[in-house]
Amino acid sequence: MRQVAPLLEMRSISKTFPGVKALTDVNLVVREGEIHAICGENGAGKSTLMKVLSGVHPHGSYSGEIVYRGEQVRFGDIRASEQAGIVIIHQELALVPGMSITENIFLGNEPRRRGAIDWQAAQRRALELMERVGLREDPDTLIKDIGVGKQQLVEIAKAFAKDVQLLILDEPTAALNEDDSRHLLDLLRGFRDRGITSIIISHKLNEIEAIADTITILRDGRTIESLDVKADGVNEDRIVRGMVGRELSSRFPEHTPAIGEVFFEVRDWTVRHPSSDERLVCKGADFHVRRGEIVGFAGLMGAGRTELAMSLFGRSYGTWLSGRVFKDGKEIQLKSVADAIRHGLAYVSEDRKSIGLNLLDDIKTSMVAAKPSKISRRGVIDPVREHRVAEDYRKSLRIKTPSVDEQVAKLSGGNQQKVVLAKWMFTDPDLLILDEPTRGIDVGAKYEIYGIIQRLVGQGKGVVVISSELPELIGLCDRIYTVFEGSITGEVTRRDADPELLMKKMTAKKKSPAS
Amino acid sequence: MSRVQDLQKNLFGGTTSNVRQFGMIFTLVAIVLLFQAWTGGLTLTSGNLIAVVSQYSYILILAIGMLMVIVAGHIDLSVGSVAAFTGIVVAKVMQEHSLPWPLGIALGLLVGALIGAWQGFWVAYVGVPAFIVTLAGMMLFRGGNQYIGNADTVPVPEGFRTIGAGYLPEVGPDTGYNNLTLLLGLAACAGMVWREWRARQTRREMNADVAPIWVTVIRLAVMLAVIVFATLRFAGGRVGTSLPISGIILIALVLAYSFYTRNTVGGRRIYAVGGNARAAELSGVKLKRVNFFVMMNMSVLAALAGMIFVARSAASGPQDGLSWELDAIAAVFIGGAAVSGGLGTISGSIVGGLVMALLNNGLQLEGVGSDMVQVIKGLVLLLAVAFDVYSKSQGRFSITGTLMRPFRREQPDAPTAPPGAASEPGKAPIAG
Q1: Closest residue by Cα to residue B244 from B168, B310, B158, B157
Q2: CA geometry: angle at B426 spanning A186 and B392, to 5°?
Q3: Are residues B182 and B195 in the same domain?
Q4: Which end of chain A is more exposed for a tag (fewer CB within 10 A), N or C?
Q5: Beta strand A214-219 with A280-290: parallel, antiparallel or unpaired?
Q6: Predicted TM-score (pTM) above 0.80
Q7: Are B324 and B59 spatial neighbours (Cβ–Cβ below 8 Å)?
Q8: Counted domains in chain B
Q9: Same domain, yes or no, for B290 and B352?
Q10: Which residue windows are transmembrane per the record (chain B) (predicted)?
Q11: How far is A508 from B13, CA to CA, in rounded Å?
């Protein structure tokens, strides 16, 4: 490891929000030219720390000092920190969907000539920047027409346009598939070789282990430790121990499967893309689920897993072309979400904030939202029953909240996910489809969610898990289907499941593609 | 929790819009007191209160429907025109075909329902934004009114006028008050006590914290005092006047729609659609049906408001209902509804409507011209919503909170978010 004076030093940073101490005496030392990872569970204070650094929380709203390039700095806003070369890329990308790549790269930073925007210069410079981040696209392409992975690259190009020296990435790979993630990580390594320092916040510990030089672990708003990856021989378990303060013996709870007969079957499911006539998002998919079984769906982003699930769930996506659904040997019609709920289906969406929950609702209202008839008589809601139901779920799922009257928006990601699970458990489903059930939630909450899933199959329900994290599927599922371009390309049992085999099947066409 | 907070929380209900609602009631009381002082006690006389109700009940009726439209994430610009169109149709048919007035009312409601179905169809099933549909409706039905009425006024028969200009009849012994109004006030008091008792009962059944009894008593005492005061004022007016029939219609509507929006599955669906349409859809809510219903319901209420107005002014004219939509929308937003939908209450909108009505009335009593009335109403709307926006950006800022700070000994309740919730970008405003 090179011995250089630190590029950045944050000394005993404390930050208090009304009633909450978010950061307590946090120290962070980042050396020039390294990739520095910040780890911690949700709510550990990672993002708050980055907001302090980037001036989102301006000087004066926190205590402690920031030394950057040997000088004490006091950023009043983001602009000030950007001028110093510190650029933060948030989890939610700050791009304008209806504008082109070029326009987005130079948004607020347009090259000017005599007061007017010099689009030619912008175009030239954009191509240069895109080259640097490995983005091959027409610079006039609109942001909404490129995938999340490429959008992320645009964000980074935008950072370069501002002459970045310290790049901060908040959960950069959360929404990316494996390929795009790998590309992004390679890119970060390339930056390191060129002397650009990065700070990366991520929940994906395998990535951190692979890429970081130094790891600082936060827990409950305090610095727990700073690890030198090479010198300390850091591995995932070591990071987890630092994050949760104890050794997690296993990432998955103990579970003995008790699998019954096939009760849910889908045959020849074919669905057309909602806006494109030629594109099929599901092509003749066949699959089945047994009682008490956890079935995984593995596939790359855009493989059609979510589309399959949503089209099954009351035709909520695309145009249904063909396919039949059988439950307990009888064919059922699922023409609307109400039908699907009536027939015992539940779908927990991958994006709980934008389509899974009404964030304005309180916890109890959210929990009964999918089947209010269960707590009402002739359309009139019984508040006492509603409250009891919600309290029961709060206790059994261990949702951390003082009261079920709180707004769901105030809960952490893991607890919100538990509310969504409660909402669908309340409908008494026979088959639960969980789309990325642990995305964006921390290790401890993940473990609890796995436990809930196992409890559900223990009651004889079937559970379908869609996930982009192969270790999760392999650890959790009894059987895994692989999906590629709308077709089911393979079926792997727990015994045979390993990442290479799955990866091969989820990136390869079936030998005889259904047409 | 300190006593002051206890009181604040329990007096105004534990809802999310609690601070907002308190602010509104505060404003309303301030306006009443201001005008009371300014007009030398004229505002709270029997005659004036009765006049306010009969003159402005239309804003409140429209505000009920508009609240639901806005909660569902839409807007309705056509209510004034729909009211005027309904008025002229009903007046014309009654005049030319000597239709009995009760049938006239039924016809009016039917016209409202048809117009609502028309607008609801475009909004819910075709997917044209309600702003456009109702902007079209605004022109369409204003033109329709002038076409049918030849831009002239058409009188309505005596019986029909009851709904706008009628009062509760005088019956029973001479008490110096209108007996039916007194009875109504008594019933309201009893209802209030019963409701309070039920609410405590419910809290107990939930094993939730029940407000201390003294809070309940204060709360009840304040509300009963308001009811008794209002009852005596309305019952003690000039002989022959009392609580107007339109006021009774209004009260019935407020009670019914409050119950519907708060306590029924159907009402909850409107909030669900406005809060997050896609999430609602994926929870089995039939989006189109809800949208169709709120638009249709609005037009029916607009028709009713139109008929009450026509009945009060004894004739339907081409200028009826001009800019009513703006009064109704302003009332709803002053009452704390969110522009983006999903938030708002009937009671808030009613308070907002009362603020508008009392402003109109008070400024008129003082002889302020309609030019300045508009200026002042505009400023009130702007300030009310600005206060809302400001208090949201400040987390939990509230007038009361600021006023009460010197008396507070304990720390406020620790916000429920875990320490780092503030670290998630989307949530920052709540903790920060």
Answers
A1: B168
A2: 160
A3: yes
A4: C
A5: unpaired
A6: no
A7: yes
A8: 2
A9: yes
A10: 21-38, 58-91, 98-116, 122-141, 210-235, 241-260, 292-311, 331-359
A11: 59
Q: From the CA atom positions of chain A, what is the Rg in Å?
A: 24
Domain hosting B238: range is: 168-243
Mark yes or no for CB contact B421/A370 under 8 Å.
Answer: no
Tell me whether residue B83 is in a domain: yes
Mutation target for B interface from A39, A51, A412: give the one with most B CBs within 10 A. Answer: A412
Q: Exposed, middle or buried: residue A67 (CB in 10 Å: 0-12, 13-18, 19+)?
A: middle
Collect all residues of chain B within an 8 Å Cβ-Cβ radius of residue A47. 420, 423-425
B33 and B99 share one domain: yes
CA-nearest residue to B396 within chain A is: A18
Q: In A116-191, which ranges are E strands?
A: 116-117, 166-170
Has the ipTM of the complex gone over 0.85? Answer: no
Region for residue A232 given its phi and psi (left: phi exceeds 0; alpha: psi -120 to 50; beta: otherwise): alpha
Both tokens of residue A189? 């390594």
- Clarify whether residues B80 and B57 are in a common domain: yes
Chain A nearest CA to B33, separation (Å):
35
Q: Do A380 and B263 touch (CB under 8 A)?
A: yes
Nearest to B105 by CA among B55, B62, B156: B156
| Residue B258 counted as domain residue | no
Q: Is residue B426 part of a domain?
A: no
Amino acid at A360: L
Q: Which of B189, B209, B243 is the last residue of a domain?
A: B243
Question: How many whole angstroms separate alpha carbon B56 and alpha carbon B210?
Answer: 38
Judging contacts by C-beta atoms under 8 Å, the chain B residues touching residue A222 are none
- From first CA to last CA, the distance across chain B in angstroms is 21
Which position has the token pair 């409107």?
A: B270
B54 and B102 inside one domain: yes
Greatest CA separation for chain A? 75
Residues A101-132 pLDDT 10s: 999 988 877 888 888 888 888 888 899 888 88
Q: Give the contacts of B49 (CB within 8 A, at least 6 positions apart).
A: B230, B233, B234
Q: B393, B409, B427 — which closes off a domain?
A: B393
Give the residue carrying structure tokens 């000088």: A71
**B160 and B184 together in one domain:** no
Partnered with residue A68 across adjacent β-strands are: A8, A71
Which candidate from B414, B420, B426 shows the least CB-CB separation from A48? B420
**CB nearest A406 (choices: B416, B420, B422):** B416
Based on the fold, state whether residues B236 and B292 are members of the same structural domain: no
Tokens at B407, concatenated: 């008396």
CB A7 within 8 A of CB A69: yes
pLDDT string in tens for chain B (432-residue length): 455 555 555 555 444 445 556 667 787 888 889 889 988 888 888 889 998 998 899 999 999 999 999 999 999 999 999 999 999 999 999 999 988 999 999 999 999 999 999 999 999 999 999 999 999 999 999 999 999 988 889 999 888 998 888 888 888 888 888 889 999 999 999 999 998 898 888 888 887 777 788 888 888 898 899 999 999 989 888 877 888 999 999 999 999 999 999 999 999 999 999 999 999 999 999 999 999 999 999 999 999 999 999 999 999 989 899 989 999 999 999 888 888 889 899 998 999 999 889 988 988 888 888 888 889 889 988 988 887 777 766 654 444 444 444 443 333 333 333 333 333 333 333 332
Question: What is the dihedral sign for C-alpha B396, B399, B401, B402?
Answer: positive
Determine, yes or no, domain membership for B254. Answer: no
Structural contact between residues A471 and A499, judged by C-beta atoms closer than 8 angstroms: yes
Q: State whether B72 and B136 are in the same domain.
A: yes
Contacts of A90 in chain B (CB under 8 A): 425
